[in-house]
Amino acid sequence: MQLDISKNSLPVYEALNSEARLEILQLLSDKKMNIKELAKKLGLSSAIITRHIQKLEKAQLIKSEKVPGKSGMQKLSFLTVDTIEIHFPQKIYHSYKLHTNQLGVGHYTDYHVKPTCGIASTENFIGQVDDPKYFMDAGRMNASLVWFSEGHVEYMIPNLLSARDAPELLEISLELASEFPRSNNVWPSDITFYVNDINIGTWTCPGNFSDVRGRHTPLWWEDKNSQYGLLKHLRISQYDTCIDGKFLSNVVLSDLGIKDRNLLKFKISVESDAKNVGGVTIFGKGFGNHDQGIILNLYYL
């Protein structure tokens, strides 16, 4: 589950603001339990436990289902989330000038992918699923979701710097998950990033998430399919390359030869010799939790 600091995430923060509800989550992480069992474990009344369960259900941290029991139907609750990430607003670098480009996820200019794979718009699949040749379908320009198990897609971006401009920082933000048929919340994948053919580092994505629906994911997309990714921020500075503020590699901005190029290249790859070959899903506008494509910010003086 991915949260931010808007009011949309308040139900989760409110649900977690209770020692009793935290204990319920701990108990449900081991097995499914009914109201009576939880009440006995916590030494609380069934009425109080029921209110706690309703709060956790509203926050989409747990779900409940009715199943046959010894004395008729009983309601069993179970945990639906194993990871929560909190996304804070993007930092703004006020002292720099800025060129921004936002690419649609289907605007790649080169690709080599292996099934499972596919592309989709906010309205339907584009071409046939699991057939790489459809990655060149003209409809890909309308894609809001791209996924593949192994291989790469590469994007070309205009370099708008003039000869007198000095690049200071390149930031790339995009929403990513791994790739698994349907979905698997625990499915690590090593995703490698290249800028201008330079390997700037590899990040291990923890899963392909479907515990809750993506905030922007269209209604036609089934619940059991991948719903959202994690918003990642790559920053290549004069000192190193970081992802979400954590060190990723020793590649620095000058290694990328930005001043000498009219076009910049950005490649997202799942290498065949990676430790975790778990694929990648790239979310664009109209899918996932963040209504954006691939954003490239080039800060300069």
From TrEMBL:
UniProt domain HTH arsR-type: residue ranges: 1-99
CDD domains in the record: HTH_ARSR (cd00090)
Gene Ontology MF term list: DNA binding; DNA-binding transcription factor activity
InterPro entries attached to this UniProt entry: ArsR-like_HTH, HTH_ArsR_DNA-bd_dom, Metal_resp_trans_reg, WH-like_DNA-bd_sf, WH_DNA-bd_sf
Claim: Ribosomal protein is one of the keywords in the record: no
Spans through the membrane: none
Keyword annotations of the record: DNA-binding, Transcription, Transcription regulation
PANTHER family from the UniProt entry: ARSENICAL RESISTANCE OPERON REPRESSOR ARSR-RELATED
Identification of the protein by name: ArsR family transcriptional regulator
